[in-house]
Amino acid sequence: MNEHYKFVNRPLPYAYDALEPYIDAKTMWLHHSRHLQTYIDNLNKALLEYPQFQDWTLEELLVNIPSLPDAIQTPVRNNGGGVYNHQFYFSNLSNPAPMHPTGMLSEAIQTEFGSFRSFKNSMKDAAASVFGSGYAWLVVDAAGRLKILTTANQDTPLPLGLCPVLNIDVWEHAYYLKHYNLRADYIEDWFQVVNWTQTNNNYLNCFPANSR
């Protein structure tokens, strides 16, 4: 996602109804064309009067928030995080989708969690535990190991030096039209549309090519 100002809302790589019956078309349309678009518009607005930061990538902005002027630190954290988190979330979905991780990610999950089932239960628990709004993440830490963590609101793992592999959005706008207040049902359905081929690529991208 090496984008910089002026940020734009890229089309999804699938139709809004492609994730049916697990995630409904209306939710996907609102999530992408309204919620994500608002974060993009607000991020562009925050950077409008600061041309010295307009060639920074989204990742550079989020990692270096303390280096930004005080006036835009919070808008960039909230809206830049909203852009990054949503784009990453959408990029890891597909239908039909592989039912299990593939490649080196599959091996790493077996090593770290013991089994895919154990990983899945841990990811479910993390997503269910988020109080209010936020995300659950599968990331690679500085030691090259997989970890599960949660972030609040639109915070990202990037300032922590972590490399994202997969995330699930548990803001209510991600599921309320179909699943109402039943977050656990949404989490179960989300697992049906995870694009494990893409997440394996994300995992590989967390390592320099010569260290694989």
TrEMBL record:
Extract the coiled-coil ranges from the record. none
Q: Does the keyword Oxidoreductase apply?
A: yes
List cellular component terms (GO). Answer: cytoplasm
Q: What is this enzyme's catalytic activity, as reactions? A: 2 superoxide + 2 H(+) = H2O2 + O2
Which Pfam family, just one, is annotated for this protein? Sod_Fe_N
Report the GO molecular function annotations.
Answer: metal ion binding; superoxide dismutase activity
Domain Manganese/iron superoxide dismutase N-terminal: start-end pairs:
11-94
Q: Which UniProt keywords apply?
A: Metal-binding, Oxidoreductase
Top-tier EC class: oxidoreductase
**Domain Manganese/iron superoxide dismutase C-terminal, which positions?**
101-201
Q: Which sites bind Mn(2+)?
A: H31, H86, D169, H173
Task: Look up the EC number in the record and give it.
Answer: 1.15.1.1
Primary role? Destroys radicals which are normally produced within the cells and which are toxic to biological systems.
The Swiss-Prot or TrEMBL record describes its family as follows: Belongs to the iron/manganese superoxide dismutase family.
PANTHER family xref list = 37S RIBOSOMAL PROTEIN S26, MITOCHONDRIAL, SMALL RIBOSOMAL SUBUNIT PROTEIN MS42
Q: What is this protein called?
A: Superoxide dismutase
| Annotated source species | Wansuia hejianensis
